[in-house]
Write a structure and sequence with these properties.
This protein is of the alpha/beta class. The chain contains seven helices and 14 strands. It has helices spanning 36-40, 59-62, 65-72, 83-87, 89-95, 167-178, 197-203, and strands at 2-9, 14-21, 26-30, 48-53, 75-79, 108-110, 115-118, 121-127, 136-140, 145-149, 152-153, 156-157, 186-189, 195-196. Bound molecules: zinc ion (2 copies). One zinc ion (ZN) binds at residues 56, 58, 131, 150, 158.
């Protein structure tokens, strides 16, 4: 059984997630962006956090990653194409007037199609460029659960105006890699409430079947 817990952290109100195998207590963190003690408190006593997956390299998702890595000893991964965002973390922090964040050092880079084992569960990394070149989602096929980072939100999509952003790539990622996973899939985004892929496929104003961009403005 997949256990999903989340907490909203940091000045950008980002959802940090803990995913765990309820049978074995093997756990992982997805985007421990800030307020690491609160993120670590999502785990039950005795659970073992063995993996930290960064969906992409923007500051709100990664600023706390080094601290989380130190606290857990977990293996930290990000897609190669967002490595430059990590290296530029001090610059990102300065841009937002934040305290200089510690640059996390990934143990390695994850890639499209990589299998992630979490106790009795298996997930797959999906490379979904668009919000950033290295943005990835994490797909628990057996549980119909998807973590989307800033690629897809309930009723919206990630911004594409930052360096490496590409709206056409984003729309292609969502339509060709995420929607085919199935209407019944529950997704957990980097900001805001969780949703279902079916609702977004039908009604998302940016990438849904009946685009209505601007109608509500
Ligand atoms: Zn982002
Ligand atoms: Zn974000």
């Amino acid at each position: 059984m997949l256990v999903v817990r989340s907490v909203v952290v940091g000045p950008f109100a980002m959802n940090a997630y803990l995913a765990a195998c309820g049978e074995t207590g093997e756990a992982m963190l997805i985007d421990p962006g800030a307020e690491i003690p609160r993120v670590l408190a999502l785990a039950e006593p005795g659970w073992r956090i063995g993996r930290i997956l960064l969906t992409h390299g923007h500051i709100d998702h990664v600023a706390g990653a080094a601290e989380a890595q130190r606290a857990t000893g977990a293996t930290l991964t990000i897609h190669q194409a967002d490595q430059a965002w990590l290296a530029g973390l001090p610059r990102q922090a300065a841009m937002f007037g934040l305290e200089g964040a510690e640059v996390p050092r990934p143990d390695r880079h994850h890639a499209d199609g990589e299998q992630v084992t979490l106790g009795n569960l298996t997930a797959t990394v999906l490379h979904t460029p668009g919000h950033s070149a290295g943005s990835c989602c994490l797909w628990f096929a057996g549980e119909d659960v998807l973590f989307t980072g800033d690629t897809l939100f309930a009723g919206s999509v990630g911004r594409t105006d930052l360096p490496g952003g590409d709206f056409e790539a984003l729309a292609t990622s969502i339509r060709e890699k995420l929607f085919p996973l199935g209407d019944g899939v529950t997704f957990h985004p980097g900001h805001g409430p969780s949703g279902s892929l079916g609702e977004e496929r039908r009604g998302n104003p940016f990438v849904g079947e009946a685009p209505r961009r601007g109608r509500y403005v």
